[in-house]
Amino acid sequence: MPEIAKMLGVEMGEKFKIKNSFYTDTYWFEWWGIAQAINPNGRNEGLLNSLLNGNEEIEKLPFKPKENEKYWAWGCSMAGWSIWEEKTTDKMCYMLGNCYRTEAECLADTAMKERIENMERCKW
What we know:
The protein has 5 helices and 6 strands; from the N terminus they run H-E-E-E-H-E-E-E-H-H-H. By secondary structure, it is of the alpha+beta class. The relative contact order is 0.12.
């Protein structure tokens, strides 16, 4: 199953949704197949077949760090790292799509840098 997950562009255990489909739940790959949030131990052979034959497509979810996990984000016109502690600032970064696994991922998102710079210019 790890090879199939990789072929479809996700990691084992990484949560995803299905693009433009009646499948509305959140899914992830386990060693035995595809699990889903509503029924984690259920089997989803039909969904797996649909993904493999190209009838369905995975929609990756934004990266959300786990408790005490390091993440990178744009702030004050520069990239920096923080530790996820479920604080308001952490949640705001996630809601804005401003959480990255690595510094390189963060630096590559120049559009986010521009949005943060524009927000910094606002005077309340």
